[in-house]
Amino acid sequence: xxxxxxGTISFGLVNIPIKLHxxxxxxxxxxxxxxxDCHAPIKYARTCSECGAEVKNDDIVKAYEYTxxxxxxxxxxxxxxxxxxxxxxxxxxxxxxxxxxIDPIYFDRTYYISPNEGGTxxxxxxxxxxxxxxxxxxxxxxIRSKENLAAIRVYGKTLVMETLHFPDEVRDIKNVPNxxxxxxxxxxxxxxxxxxxxxxxxxxxxxKYTDDYRVELLELIRSKVDDDEGVTKQEQTNVIDLMxxxxxxxxxxxxxxxxxxxxxxxxxxxxxxxxxxxxxxTKKQTKKAT
Length: 290
What we know:
By secondary structure, the protein is an alpha+beta fold.
């Protein structure tokens, strides 16, 4: 399992070297955008909003827009130094609380915690302590340049870390529009609703629930593959197009042949011939008369 973070957890004088591993993964079916004509993937270039030029990664800097149109540029070395200072800090458990006291709206991502070298016994000690007291530990941790509040709890035989949103990251419910005030609900309506809830009440079993859309989408994809409906990127025919263009250019550049004036030429040729024949006949007649 890929390690996303290494460090230590401390509570009191106990330090536990640990590794974090992502506990969940995105199972969304990734669809690519293709060019309709040649079925080649679409590329998205990074361009400057001002001059329109394509920008390479080396020419991009980080900045914070403190007012509209004005930015503070942050040097990469400054950011790396700050990131390193935060990530090298031990994850210290600040408080121990009951899990039920944390509303689910605060939960963000889940990570499995495994002990690093030399941390097995301390890891087992924290796990046993949390399990027996039914408490979770609250700590702060910096992952990928972001400081997070985190809850450390027991899941099966493993310690897990749930990153939490800070209070100022949770939007105020007062800003949610169109929330109705108390309305007159009939006792019969309420009783019917409660009865329905009782009928549908069950123990939570996550294996019962599936992503139906993803399942049906994968079935559709498989059926198209089985029916040989796959497409491949069409090879470009630049060479052929170039040859065609050259041939057309050559044809266009050739001198145009003058139109054949067959009738005129023949007529012009015949007339002198007629004169010559007539002349010869006249000469013969004159000679005979003599």
